[in-house]
Write a structure and sequence with these properties.
Length: 547
């Protein structure tokens, strides 16, 4: 069987445009393959979320699928991912399905069996589960069809399983030589290794060719890395599609094969590519061509600017320098040098006059009250207001520049540095920010060395550093990984050897900062658990988890 995995980048909700993309990909391999396999929900884009609740959207999807089948009547078979009516009452109205396009008609369908409801997934909200993995006839061969989560519950792989059944076990009864999996698996660090180990195991266990067609591109906060895969029955990875780019992977199960090299891209390169794709697709799919951001001379804004230039081009990015009386001369120089190195235009807007105006207006209500964090927050909010004004006036996309360590602990100002439409590095811990900065500079200085070497500071008061308010970032990030991503509570962190005073501080800061995160811009997800769609902590909660 000659199989083409169509690694596509759909726009959620753009049914006609997505169908055109699928048609073009199929026509490009016509005459060379027996079947084309799209990713999960390729017609709608994944995740379509509450668009699935709109009856007209579902009806139009059926019409577009029928039209696509007709225009591809003379081409290879196509397995198309899309929602279809479940026909079940009582029950959810839809199935997350694959439909078989052949000879101009929409034929056999296959429904996803395991519906994830963890992290960023909420499929039980919309879909009725399928009953089992089925098989489709392609020429003289048969292939089992599964959808994403269906392959992620093998009892030999997972010591703790989310579901009672393992739909892929039906492969034994189906006795098919090929398994096709249609996926929309979001990117996170380390995800590719998990996928490859799982698929290699399934291929060996069932003695089948295992194919995995994954979506690529970014939709809101989720980034899909592609890297579609093909495994021979002995568990050899025989083909891997491009990372973070559209691609078509063609494999002939009857041809001799050899293994592909293991994925050896550095974590820094992988995360950088993911963030670039996240910015590029968010801008493109939301109708933006240009972006702007505040440049403080710090490492976070420098890294964000480099990512923005890679995503949109230097002529389409503007940096805004907003020095205050507390800004060091070195920070202003660092911001200017960074802008020159990446070739972006800048505006310099000193904020001292606005600070003075606020001081004058608030002199009465603030009389006899000492200066405190209020005045620091005002500086951030002045900058945020200026950035929003520029974004409104120019139509440019405003990018926020805060990192995950700051967002976790609330070391950020609501309606200030949190202003913006997309939080580019808000799922990147500060320690990884430094690693990414060094990686950016691997071929020559882009981010000034002084930006990397100086003590991080918000520069909202004289001689301020981040470590006046936070633990050292290496310790902070280690605690946050355990607390945020792995759900370790305060007593557990203390038992693991972290300083009790630091643990108390960090757990407390994470808890009381939830209201800020609820109002944050969408966060591009690159870790297993980001402050985005998959984070559902209450704002009002008790303190049972304090150490």
């Amino acid at each position: 069987m000659r199989i083409a995995l169509l690694q596509l980048n759909p726009i959620v909700g753009a049914l006609d445009a997505n169908a055109s993309r699928i048609e073009a990909a199929v026509r490009a391999v016509q005459g060379r393959v027996d079947v084309c396999v799209t990713p999960e929900m390729a017609l709608t884009g994944y995740p379509p979320r509450d668009l699935l609740l709109v009856p007209g959207f579902i009806a139009h999807a059926q019409e577009v699928a029928s039209r696509l089948a007709s225009v591809l009547a003379s081409g290879p078979d196509v397995l198309l991912g899309m929602p279809i009516p479940s026909g079940v009452e009582p029950g959810r109205p839809l199935l997350n399905a694959a439909v078989h396009l052949r000879g101009g008609t929409v034929g056999q369908s296959f429904a996803k069996t395991l519906l994830p409801t963890y992290d960023v997934f909420d499929e039980d909200r919309y879909f009725e589960p399928g009953r089992t993995v089925g098989a489709v006839a392609i020429g003289n061969c048969r292939a089992a069809v599964s959808i994403c989560e269906d392959v992620w519950n093998d009892p030999d792989v997972w010591t703790t399983r989310r579901y009672g059944g393992d739909p892929v076990a039906a492969l034994r009864d189906l006795a098919t030589p090929v398994m096709l999996n249609m996926s929309a698996s979001p990117y996170a660090q380390g995800k590719l290794a998990q996928r490859e180990q799982l698929l290699a195991h399934l291929a060996r266990k069932y003695g089948v060719w295992a194919f995995y067609a994954n979506q690529v591109g970014a939709n809101d906060d989720l980034i899909f890395d592609g890297r579609s895969l093909a495994f021979a029955p002995d568990g050899t990875c025989v083909a891997r599609a491009a990372a973070f780019a559209e691609d078509t992977l063609i494999v002939d199960t009857g041809a001799p094969y050899g293994g592909v090299d293991p994925w050896d891209e550095a974590v820094e390169a992988e995360v950088f590519a993911a963030l670039v794709l996240g910015v590029r697709d968010y801008a493109r799919k939301c109708g933006f061509t240009r972006a702007l951001l505040g440049l403080s001379g710090g490492i976070d804004s420098a890294l964000t600017a480099v990512i923005a230039v890679e995503a949109l081009g230097r002529d389409n990015v503007t940096g805004v320098l907003m020095p205050s009386p507390f800004s060091s001369a070195g920070s202003l120089t660092d911001a200017e040098q960074l802008a020159a190195a990446i070739g972006i235009g800048t505006h310099t807007l000193p904020i001292a006059p606005v600070m003075n105006a606020f001081d004058d207006v608030l002199a009465g209500p603030f009389a006899a009250r000492p200066a405190d964090v209020t005045e620091e927050n005002l500086q951030a909010r002045i900058r945020g207001t200026l950035l929003m004004a520029l974004s409104n006036k120019t139509g440019d996309l405003l990018l926020t520049t805060g990192n995950k360590s700051e967002l976790a602990t609330g070391y950020c100002t609501l309606y200030g540095d949190m202003n913006g439409a997309l939080a580019v590095i808000a799922d990147v811990y500060k320690t990884l920010v430094y690693r990414l900065a060094h990686w950016v500079n691997r071929g020559g200085v882009v981010i000034p060395a002084s930006t990397i070497d100086k003590a991080p500071s918000a520069e909202l008061r004289p001689n301020q550093t981040d470590q006046d308010s936070l633990p050292p970032y290496d310790l902070l990030d280690a605690m946050l990984v355990r607390h945020v991503e792995q759900c370790a509570d305060g007593p557990t962190l203390v038992a693991e050897g972290f300083d009790p005073t630091m643990v108390h501080q960090v757990v407390h800061l994470v808890r009381i900062s939830e209201f800020k995160r609820k109002q944050a811009a969408p966060v591009l997800k690159v870790t297993p658990r980001a402050f985005g769609t998959g984070w559902r902590m209450p704002i009002a909660r008790g303190t049972w988890d304090q150490a």
